[in-house]
Hints:
The complex is a heterodimer of chains A (294) and B (253). Chain A is mainly α and 294 residues long. Helices cover 61% and strands 0% of the residues of chain A. Chain A is built from eleven helices and no strands. Chain A has helices at 13-23, 63-79, 85-91, 95-123, 126-158, 162-171, 177-193, 202-206, 210-214, 238-243, 255-293. The longest helix of chain A is centred in the last third of the chain and has 39 residues, at 255-293. The radius of gyration of chain A is 27 Å and the shape is rod-shaped. The two termini of chain A are 19 Å apart. The relative contact order of chain A is 0.14. With 253 residues, chain B is an alpha+beta fold. Chain B has a domain at 24-167. Chain B contains six helices and seven strands, in the order ααβββαββββααα. Chain B has helices at residues 2-9, 11-24, 98-101, 190-223, 230-236, 248-252, and strands at residues 28-30, 50-53, 69-76, 103-110, 125-128, 151-159, 162-167. In chain B, the strands form two sheets. In chain B, strands 1-7-6-3-4 form a five-stranded mixed β-sheet. A two-stranded antiparallel ribbon of chain B has the order 2-5. Chain B is rod-shaped and about 135 Å long. Classes of the chains: A mainly alpha (294), B alpha+beta (253). Chain B: The chain crosses the membrane at residues 193-216. Chain B: Residues 1-26 form the signal peptide.
Amino acid sequence: MASAAAEAEKGSPVVVGLLVVGNIIILPALPRPVGARKGNLFTESPAAPAATPEPAFLTCCPVQLSGLALFAETVWVTADQYRVYPLMGVSGKDDVFAGAWIAIFCGFSFFVVASFGVGAALCCRRSMILTYLVLMLIVYIFECASCITSYTHRDYMVSNPSLITKQMLTFYSADTDQGRELTRLWDRIMIEQECCGTSGPMDWVNFTSAFRAATPEVVLPWPPLCCRRTGNFIPLNEEGCRLGHTDYLFTKGCFEHISHAIDSYTWGISWFGFAILMWTLPVMLMAMYFYTTL
Amino acid sequence: MGLGGGQYRLPVPLWLLLTCLQQGTGLERISYVPQLSSPTLAGTLTQSTFTLEQPRGQFSRLNISDLDTIWLVVAHSNATQNFAAPQRVEDIPVPADFSQRGYYLTLMANRLLYPGNQPGNQLRVLRVGNDTRCSPKTRGCNHPLPGPGPYRVKFLVMSDRGPVAETEWSSETRLQQAKALQAVPGPQSAGTVVIIAILSVLLAVLFTALLALLIYTCHDTCRSAPISGPEQSTCMRRYNTHHVTDPPAVGAS
Lengths: 294, 253
């Protein structure tokens, strides 16, 4: 797998091979000088027999692949398909998305530094390996920070419904900018997911809210979008909705959907990043060992 | 005996008075207890309203005519003993009298509105406190209830001559009281602890390994002189130059 020149060098070819495979992926973007074997981009003599057996199968999740996957996945998180960002933006802390942004840069950095690491492993130079190690450690620290930030904020927001409920009661139908933004978000969620309130329509009855201040309870105990509607967006039965009959009112709470959205983002940042960091550790330890043999 | 005769004669007008009084308070009791509507309705109890089942078929007695009005008496729980059925329509208390009298009458209806046959799939309820448009000083206004209660209700049938029949008092109904929600941030889940602990350990391992490596490098370069053996020199540099015949000492530096 490694070039034949590695055979003549001091560094153990097995370790070099492992390092290279550990860092490299099938790089389709890079031109292949000789189409000898996939991934064998630095080969200068294609006819040379592989000095090492293929330990590549032992390290099938290379750091570069992981870095690119992390990059792509956190771009998806930042795109916010579920559009729940206002929930966190209004509270002033959007650490789940901050973690996603850090992970975007970390993912790309892993890719770049790992490419450099491939070169360092093949060049067998101590200074390059040391640079590689220091750079990887810096990216490692940032990635750790991203994982921890994201998960801690997710715990704060959705481990129990009370924070989301408090926000909804304070801002829904309020006449401020934040209120309008949050009202739009809740209206959309209630229509799309056919739910009402955080735990159910009784949230509006049991607690004081900005909505209650605007609309007397006798008129409608809960927001009008909690009523079931026809295809033409006309309530099926206004009296039934006011009384709270399940045929005319959504009785499911929206918290399940919101927590599912935020959990999806967090799992993608925290646990995925955690897995990548677990994998990167042995690669770096191997690089350190390799450094000592040079 | 004169006294006895006198005593005997005196109670006669009293007896007449008693009979008249009894006829006046001769309310027929209907053994029906007003019920709250089924709890499957989310809006059964709110802050200022509650919903009752309709008293269907309870007023099909001979002494009640179709023209008699059926009122709902809404009373505070501790005012039920003071309740006296109003004799005339003008005496009927309005919702504004609730604070002093402790009860009022509302939801005027008649027997035809509460027919006995089961409708099947229709939901029939009475919502007490449903009307915000009428004034509380209007007789029969179904104004929202002023406080959390507890309330007890019963139905009263009145004709032109006065009250005719009444049902039993319902059980106590307490309304919801809205509180301000106290937001408690969620507790840390097990995942946070796992991630923080393991990542800290990994970082610590890497730091120490790198530190050990740097110390080792320092030792290597500071302590040991670069002994130029043939194997070492070929590892440090690869010269594709024409200095291959130079002594290895030069190549190793």
